[in-house]
Amino acid sequence: MKEKRKKCEICGFDRVVDRCHLIPQSIADGVVGLRKYKGYRIKKNIICLCKNHHFLFDNYKLTEEEWMIVMPRFNDVWEDVEMLQNSNLIPKTIVTKSEHKRKVKKVNKWLGIITDLFEKYGKTN
Description:
8% strand; mainly alpha; 5 helices; single chain
């Protein structure tokens, strides 16, 4: 039996589709409890998007209608996203002090943006 072809979860385009991370690898890398999100092993952290929507998603430039499609997918990973609010989860021993500060700043910026979007578009009743 042939596997069903994936398509963009926003527009339905199916010729070139990327598997995108809801929790980006760059955020998960080095964070205790989120290392499992590195790579494509965790299916609940993957969303299929065409190249255009992947770029727009990664740069927080989707339209309101598009965010309404994407953000409910965060319900499956939201418990782990909330865990990021504890910056002590980023080990200080494996990076320099300045690298640790940069990582915490990056995580907090991403967390702020995603939390706002989830509050607006993601919760399901």
